[in-house]
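[Meeting: bench + compute handoff]

Bench side (C.D.) handed over the final construct sequence. Compute side (W.E.) agreed to return the predicted structure before the next meeting so the bench team could plan truncations. Sequence as handed over:
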Amino acid sequence: MMAWRKGLLFLACLLPLASLALQLITGDLGPDPAKRLILFTGGWSLNFLLLTLMISPLRVWLRRPSLIRYRRMLGLFCFFYATLHALCVGTYLLGWEWSIFREELQERPYMLVGFFAWLTLLPLAATSNRFSVRHLGRRWLILHRLVYGTLVLALVHLFWLVRSDLAEAVLYGLAGSALLLWRLRRSRFFVRFGCNLANK
C-alpha cells in the first residue's frame, strides 16, 4: 500500500519537470526562455520546501503519523529543483564566469542569499538517508532543523528580487510565516516560556 503511494508521489513530483521539458520541446518558454527557466525552477524549489515543512503540522492536525514517510522524498525534490535553479542561474545568467558573478552580485545581492539557501540544503540532502539517521541520532534532528533557516533565506531572496508585483511573494511569505510560527510554538523554548508566564 505504502509503496504505490510513494510511487504516485514520486511521479507527481516529476510533473513540473515534465511540464518544463514539454515547454522546451515545443518552444513555449516565451520571449525570454532563460528567465522562464530560472523563475520556474526557483518557484518549484520553494513550493517543495513549503510542502516538506507542511508535513509535520499536517500529521498533527490530521492525526496521521504515517505522513512523515513522505517528507524525505519531498525534501529531496526540493533540493533537486533548487539545484536545477542554481544550474540555470550559473549557465544562463552568469555563464560560469567569476568576473560576471562579481558584477552581478553587486547589482543583484539577493543572488548571494539564494546561494546560501542552496548551501543549507546541501547537508540536509546528504544526510537524508537511513544510515545518517541511525548514526547521527539526536544530532540529525538538530541538523535538519536548519531547513527553517533555509526557508527564511529563500523568502528573503524572493522578496528582494521582486520589483513590482508583490502578490505572489506575499502569499509565499504568509505561508512561510505560518509554518515558522507553528514550529516556534512547538519548540521547547516557547513551551517553557509559556509555562513560566502561566506560573507567574
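W.E. noted at the follow-up: The chain has ten helices and no strands. C.D. will use this when planning the next construct.
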